[in-house]
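Input record (one chain):
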Amino acid sequence: MTVTTDQEVRRVVVTDLKRTQIVMYAGAGGDFNPLHTDEPFATQIAGNPTVMAHGMLTMGLASRVLTDWFGHENIRRYRARFKAPVWPGDTITATATVTSVETVDGQRRAELTVSAVNAAGVEVLSGTATAIVADEGEATVTDSGTATTAGSDEGEAT
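The corresponding structure, as predicted from the sequence alone:
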């Protein structure tokens, strides 16, 4: 795969975020903070317009721009800061931009910035990531012992 500095990939990672998605995330993560799950609490006590999505849900959704580009097995680091709330009904677009490509310990690595914005253009997340860049035809061995060849959707045991 050819990856160069300043290369950018942008993806809509969720369209019309549903309350159901927020509640499902709360159940999966065990985070039932009423800001995320209780409409009267979120509006009457906290003063929000409605419940809000978990920051980690936003981070997970935004990570799709990285995993779609490099494959989940090649993401080595991902950090993010939550900058604004994400609400039910929001559409979130994530952008990953390559800031550098270096060879470290014999592997090509891309350093990236990650940003996610809502439909109004408000940045809701900013972060950084490191991804392994496999050359075309080169196998990348994952932690599970699976080899994935760049340019292929198939993996095989090693």
